[in-house]
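[Q] Does anyone have a clean C-alpha cell version of this?
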Amino acid sequence: MEFEEKIRRMFPAAGEVPAEFSLDGPVVCDRYLVDGELRRWEGPLRDVLSPVCIRDGEALDQKLLGRYPLMDEATSLEALEAAVRAYDHGRGLWPTLSVRQRIKYVEDFTFRMREKRDEVVKLLMWEIGKTHADAANEFDRTVEYIRDTVDAMKELDRVSSRFVIQKGIIGQIRRGPLGVVLCMGPHNYPLNETFTTLIPALIMGNAVIFKPPRLGVLLHFPLLEAFRDSFPRGVVNTVFGRGQQVVHPLMGTGKVDVLAFIGSSRAADLLKKQHPKPHRLRSVLGLEAKNAAIILRDADLDLTVPECVLGALSYNGQRCTALKMLWVHSEITGVFLDKLSRAVTDLRMGMPWEEGVRVTPMPELDKTRYLTELVEDAVAKGAKVMNPGGGAVAGTFFHPAVLYPVNETMRVYHEEQFGPIIPVASFDDIERPIRYVIDSNYGQQVSLFGSDPEVIGRLVDPLVNQVCRVNINSQCQRGPDTFPFCGRKDSAEGTLSVSDALRVFSIRTIVAAKTTEPNKAIVEDIVRDHRSNFISTDFIL
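[A] Here you go.
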C-alpha cells in the first residue's frame, strides 16, 4: 500500500495544475470535415476522459477533457461519397494536378498546421498522457516528416521527368494515384503515425478519409480548418465515432481503394473482410510486435541497460517498437537484473507536464487491470517482481514491473503487453532466444547486445530473415523516417518510410508510343506547350 499511496499523491488536486499547462474547460468538438465544409454534428457526443486524474480527498477522478461526434453510417457514407467525387475515377482536380501544384497545397497546409502547435501539443499531452516534451517532439517530428516527404516527392518527380526509348518505343514512366484512401492511425502516436500515411497518400494525388483513433481525437480538431482551407473540396474528409458504425460501412461499399491502418492485426483482418473485392484493395498495415532483446555474455551493461530501459519504457512501453522480451545470458543475468531494477527505480514518475518525468498515467480504459493480470499470472507460475513497487496501481497509473524468470507457460511470454512490464528470461544456449524469434507470430525488429563482431555477425544472418530490422547495441525504433519501416508475419503489410510511403500509395503508370515522326511531333508539342501534367519534362528544384 505504500507505493499505491505514493502514486496516488502524484496526481494533482484541483487547482494544482500549472497555469501554462491547464485547460480552460471541456473542449466540445461538434464539427467534422466533409466535401470542403466544416459541418456541425447535431447527434450524440462521446466524452473524452484524460489519463490524468484529479485527486479529491481519497478519490481519483479522470478529468473530463471534451467531447467528439459519434457519427452514424449515413454521415460516414457522405464523407466517402465526397472523396469519391473529388477523385472522380482519376479525372478530378486533385489527381490531375501536377506534382508541383500538389506540393504547394501541402506546403500551405504545413504553414497553417504550425500555427496550431501549442494547442495540439497541449491536447496531445492531456489526451494520451504523453509527456509535454514528447508531445512537442511528436508535433515537430510530424512537421519534419511532411517536409521530408515533399523533398522525396520532388526527387521522385525529377527521376520521372525524362523519356525512355527502348526498341523503337518512347515512354514516360511516372507514379499515379490509386483512388480513395482510408487512413486510421494509432492512439500512441495519433498525430505522427496518422500523418505518415495521410500526407504521402495526399501528395500522390489520392483523396483521403481519415478517422482518428478513439484515444487521440481532440488533438485533430484544431487542424480541421487548416485541412479545409488548404485543399480542394472533398480531398480530405473526416469521420469520428465507433468503428463498426462508421468504418465497416465504408469498407463494405467497395469504394475504398487503399486501407492505411495502424493498430491490431485482429482489427485489420476484420476491416479487410468487409471489402467485397479484396483483390482490389491495397493494404498498408502497421500491426503488433513482440520485439526481443538478446543480451550476450560480453555485452557492455553500462550501455545495454539504459538502452533496454529506453526501449522497454519510453512512453510507458506503449510503442509497437518497444522491447517486450529480454533474453539475457545466464552468466550475467544477476548483474543485469540488479542494474535494470535500479535503473527502473530511478526513473522519475509523475504527471505529463513535469520536467524530466519518464513514467506517466495510461490512457486506455482498464489497461492497468490487464497489466495486473499479466503480472499475477507470471508470479503464479514462478516469476518474481524484481523492482520495488513493480506492478503497484493507483487510478490510471501502473508502476513499471520487471519480471524474472519468465517462461513459455506465462501469458506475458507470448502477449504484446503494450505497457510498462519488462519480462526477462535467461539462456545458456543461443538457440533459445533465436527459437523464440522464429516461433513468434511477429517479425518487426530485434536488438542484439554484445562486443564480439564474429558472434554478432553470425547472429545477424539468420535474424534478418525473421525480422525486418536488427539493431546492434541499441533499442528497437522506427527512426530515422528515411529508413524502411516494415515487418514480417503478423507485424505489418507494406513498407513505410519517407520514400517508400510514396510508392505504396501509388502505382507505376506509363505513356508509350512508337517512335514514328508523327508520334514524336505529338509528344514534343505536348511537352513544349505544357498540354499535360503527366507528359512533362519539368524539373522541380
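[Q] Thanks! Anything notable?
[A] DSSP finds 19 helices and 25 strands in the chain.
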